[in-house]
Design goal:
The complex is a heterodimer of chains A (325) and B (325). Chain A is of the alpha/beta class and 325 residues long. Chain A has 10 helices and 13 strands. Chain A folds into 3 domains: 114 residues, ATPase, nucleotide binding domain (Nucleotidyltransferase, domain 5); 145 residues, ATPase, nucleotide binding domain (Nucleotidyltransferase, domain 5, 2-Layer Sandwich); 47 residues. The radius of gyration of chain A is 21 Å and the shape is globular. The two termini of chain A are 25 Å apart. With 325 residues, chain B is α/β, with parallel strands linked by helices. Chain B is 49% helix and 14% strand. The radius of gyration of chain B is 20 Å and the shape is globular. The chains are: A alpha/beta (325), B alpha/beta (325). The interface between A and B is medium-sized, with 26 and 29 residues.
Chain lengths: 325, 325
């Protein structure tokens, strides 16, 4: 079997997918990053070897997500791409004709506007994480409701409660207030979904031309309550693609497939990367008043990559050929 | 021993440095500037500045602090208006007062008011006041003023011919004929102290150049063109910098060689939130020109900026391919 790997190392989850030569998703893995991206990626690679038949050949690897550079170095990626382009590519190939992508992940959310399969506009949330998955996660934990049941419970609501969604901190106090007043749990949960959607549309989606076909992806798309809230707010049917939770990785794998189609050999270092000892460290450079925090990645004790310096003193000192060996 | 006058490398430095420098040097002073913004400069600025100031003002405090001990005078003009019937941001007007209140151990400050709200001709009288700090001879001041104005005019023409200010400060020979530029051109529109300070904008200009992009800014657009486009608005914009940004951006939307526009805004800047919106609306009305609104403050992480710039450049490239450029 011949195929391609896509890796998405995000703040909350680390996802891997394997697509075959036709670009069909065959395997997908969704793991919690738990603040340790290297360990999560290694576990992901390990699990992937167990899923794939022994003779599988990986022709290309794509990395994306906020940890894409780290993942790119560790796995040996052919393409290292930002999350926006990766999500757009995945959505436009899985749902041809898509014009709006709503993506809500663990700590960020984005909107991508496509026209004729090309990104025409995008926006990401800024420092505020009020409209993202980790907030839902937190509230579910506080209410003692497993996050998996959150959506179904909220669908039982008959009249959602209005919750102030401007800020996660205020939303929480508002929710506590509503709950002490005696409102029904499903109504509170549905209200929370609506507040999140409102916050998303007012911040990330502000001024964007949202028109159908609308695709909703990212980990939060697992929540049926959110889908329903989007449909109510937009008055448009919202499509959730089959691999909604790993679309970033799907896009990265497709970009890797496009890349090696030009006849370039892959830089994939093999699943053995799961066994090597990778360590990330950082130090403050004292060469100038910028005091850059330089990140250093070591494989079995020797430095294989450095980044984070403004001037390039450390990152360019790394010999490119040495990195790829 | 000549007196040493320090000019902070901040705020309107990138617009008027040749004017100020020539004027003081012609009067026999030695002119020095603070270095480029670094993390240390920002840290000092954050400590000294009032909380609600925008990032460029906080950075300006750091530059004053950096000059404090090594000069006889610090030049912080009270910039009220640099063009008839227009104003500069009120924070600039109050900057000398804020500095006096917040910075300890200051040398003498030259804080002459520059106010050309009524007529441009008032500038001469204000420069005379400015010069009187170090020279008592009115004839010498008049001559220095003339020399400074003509130096400034030459600087402006180098910038209008396509140089960025930092280059035009040094390279005084005009534009070398480097032939047609085949790189895609992206317009960067923002306050000079945001787009030319590589620390504030996290190396935006260098990142774009390294990605093979040719850059034009609002300052490269001649005043005449800026005014003719700004004149199409229903109401006159009375912020000088805002008028320049909107006028230049409108001109860029009409220029087929411009492949995308990046609007750089300071977090919490009132005029920026308005110009950004006006430009975005204009861009949307005219079609699908790639547009990115980058908002900067001291919490801006490199990752967020890099992701947005990368996605923006992907968008520019995809548009180029789709339209066969």
């Amino acid at each position: 079997m011949i195929g391609f790997l896509g890796i998405d190392v995000g703040s909350v989850s680390t996802n891997l997918v394997y697509i075959n030569e036709d670009g069909k998703v065959r395997e997908s893995i969704y793991l919690r990053t738990n603040g340790r991206p290297i360990a999560a990626l290694q576990r992901g690679l390990q699990e992937m070897t167990e899923l794939l038949p022994p003779k599988t050949v990986i022709r290309g690897v794509g990395a994306t997500g906020s940890g894409r550079h780290l993942a790119g170095i560790i796995a040996g990626a052919d393409v290292v791409k930002n999350e926006i382009t990766s999500h757009a590519v995945a959505a436009s190939r899985v749902v041809p004709g898509v014009r709006t992508v709503l993506e809500i992940g663990g700590q960020d959310s984005k909107i991508i506007i496509l026209r004729d399969g090309i990104v025409a506009d995008f926006a990401m949330n800024t420092v505020c994480a009020a409209g993202t998955g980790s907030f839902l996660d937190q509230q579910a934990a506080r209410l003692n409701i497993p996050i998996e049941k959150f959506g179904d419970l909220s669908l039982k609501s008959s009249s959602p409660v209005r919750i102030a969604g401007r800020c996660a901190v205020f939303a929480e106090s508002d929710m506590i207030h509503k709950q002490q007043m005696g409102y029904d749990m499903p109504d509170i949960l549905a209200g929370l979904c609506e507040a999140l959607v409102r916050n998303y549309l007012n911040n990330v989606g502000k001024g964007k031309d949202i028109s159908g076909t609308v695709v909703f992806q990212g980990g939060v798309a697992a929540n049926q309550g959110m889908k329903a809230a989007f449909e109510r707010a937009l008055n448009i049917e919202v499509i959730i693609p089959p691999h909604f939770g790993v679309m970033g990785a799907v896009g990265a794998s497709m970009l890797a497939r496009d890349h090696v189609a030009r006849g370039v050999p892959t830089r994939f270092k093999g699943f053995g990367a799961a066994e090597s000892d990778f360590r990330a460290g950082s130090f403050e450079c004292d060469g100038c008043p910028n005091m850059c925090e330089v990140v250093e990645i070591r494989k079995d004790g020797s430095v294989i990559a450095r980044w984070g310096d403004r001037c390039g003193k450390w990152s360019t000192r790394m010999d490119r050929r040495k990195i790829s060996s | 021993m000549p007196v040493i006058i320090g000019i902070p490398r901040s705020l309107l430095f990138y617009k008027y440095y040749p004017l100020w420098k020539t004027f003081f040097e012609e009067l026999g002073a030695e002119v020095t500037t603070s270095g480029h913004t670094t993390k240390a400069v920002l840290q000092e600025g954050l400590k000294l500045s009032v909380d609600e100031a925008c990032l460029p003002v906080k950075v300006a405090f750091g530059h004053v602090q950096a000059l404090r001990e090594r000069v006889d005078y610090i030049f912080i003009p009270r910039l009220v208006s640099v063009s008839p019937r227009e104003y500069i941001c009120p924070k600039f007007l109050g900057f000398p007062d804020m500095v006096r209140q917040c910075v300890q151990g200051l040398p003498a400050i030259i804080d002459t008011s520059i106010n050309m709200y009524r007529r441009e001709g008032d500038m001469f009288r204000q420069f005379s006041e400015m010069g009187a700090h170090i020279c008592k001879n009115p004839l010498k001041i008049t001559a220095a003023y003339r020399k400074a104005r003509s130096e400034m005019a030459r600087f402006d023409s180098r910038v209008e011919a396509g140089m960025l200010p930092e280059e035009a400060f040094i390279n005084r020979e005009g534009i070398p004929g480097d032939g047609p530029d085949h790189r895609p051109t992206v317009a960067v529109v923002g306050h000079p102290y945001n787009i030319y300070d590589s620390f504030i904008n996290i190396n935006l200009i260098k990142r774009l150049e390294e990605s093979g992009i040719n850059i034009v800014t609002a300052d490269n657009v001649p005043e005449r063109l800026v005014n003719s486009y700004a004149g199409t608005l229903n109401k006159k914009l009375f912020w000088t910098l805002g008028r320049r940004m909107v006028g230049a951006a409108y001109h860029f939307t009409d220029n087929p060689s411009i492949r995308g526009i990046i609007h750089v805004a300071s977090f919490a800047c009132g005029p920026d939130s308005m110009t950004g919106d006006m430009i975005e609306r204009k861009v949307r009305r005219k079609g699908n020109l790639p547009f990115l609104n980058l908002i900067l403050d001291e919490h801006t992480g490199e990752a967020g900026i890099v992701t947005r710039i990368e996605a923006f450049l992907d968008m520019v490239n995809m548009h180029g391919q789709a339209s066969g450029i």
